[in-house]
Design a protein that fits this description.
Plays a role in the regulation of phosphate uptake. It is found in: Cytoplasm. It holds the Pfam family PhoU. This is Phosphate-specific transport system accessory protein PhoU. The chain has about 240 residues and is an all-alpha fold. It has a single domain (about 1-230), classed as Methane Monooxygenase Hydroxylase, Chain G, domain 1. The protein contains nine helices and no strands. Helix 1 runs antiparallel to helix 5 (about 120-140) and helix 5 runs antiparallel to helix 7 (about 155-170). The protein is flat, with a radius of gyration of 23 Å. The N and C termini lie far apart (about 50 Å).
Length: about 240
């Protein structure tokens, strides 16, 4: 394979890793600003949107040049196409971090989240930041098992999001309407952040296997069942027919 071509593919992966690092630290910092009324940190995250746009443009350019000039095929083609989609996911994750930071700035010097609800937001952020770290790991390793775990582990975030929604719609909601709106929006931002991480996991599965995650899982289950049946059949042969072999 041409060295320049491989270098371009590696550069695309490198750009994605930079973006993954950026969105992870951005959400971590935005949540800190939110829960500690840290105006300076909130302003820093809001002002960082230009940096992610620069990374997005760089990655998009690399992908378009590969498609237009190199005509990749098979897995390389899937890598470039998936890379373009992943750029979009990461850009949206960065934008969601900025939304959280803007909420912190808007409510300063107060903390936007009522004290009793802060653990929910903190946990959603922790899970989302962890998912972003897993995104970086699977972009490096192209490990389909890790990518599938990322897809499966999203339930916890969805459960918290649903619980917060239920709390804010109860008749005995003890806070203001504004606080209900704020907490609902924040929960939605964090839930969508994790959803984009899950989408990246799905795209990595497709990139590696050429299959949709659900089809790949079904194939794995079929293969595992076949191996189990073969093992059972071999055991029967060994027990009852081994002496005639």
């Amino acid at each position: 394979m041409r060295t320049a071509y491989r270098d371009q593919l590696n550069q695309l992966t490198h750009d994605l890793l930079l973006m993954a690092d950026f969105v992870r630290t951005s959400m971590e910092s935005a949540t800190h600003a939110l829960l500690h009324a840290d105006l300076a940190e909130a302003e820093r995250i809001v002002g960082s949107i230009d940096a992610i746009e620069d990374l997005r443009e760089q990655a998009d350019t690399a992908a378009f040049e590969l498609l237009a000039l190199e005509a990749p095929v098979a897995r390389d083609l899937r890598q470039v196409v998936a890379g373009q989609r992943i750029v979009g996911n990461l850009t949206r994750m960065a934008a969601l971090s900025v939304h959280v930071a803007k909420m912190a700035r808007r409510r300063h010097p107060n903390i936007a989240v009522p004290e009793q609800l802060r653990p929910y937001i903190s946990e959603m952020s922790r899970l989302g930041v962890g998912a972003a770290q897993n995104v970086k790991d699977i972009l490096v390793s192209a490990d389909t098992d890790k990518a599938l775990r990322l897809v499966r582990d999203d339930d916890a975030v969805d459960d918290i999001h649903q619980h917060i929604f239920q709390l804010t719609t109860q008749r005995d909601w003890p806070y203001t309407v504004r606080e209900a709106v704020d907490i609902t929006l924040l929960s939605r931002f964090l839930e969508r952040y994790s959803d984009h991480a899950v989408s990246i996991g799905q795209r990595v599965v497709f990139m590696v296997t050429g299959m949709r995650p659900e089809d790949y899982i079904e194939q794995q289950q079929t293969e595992e069942e076949q191996l189990k049946q073969n093992h059972q059949f071999d055991e029967i042969k060994r027990r009852y027919f081994g002496e005639f072999g």
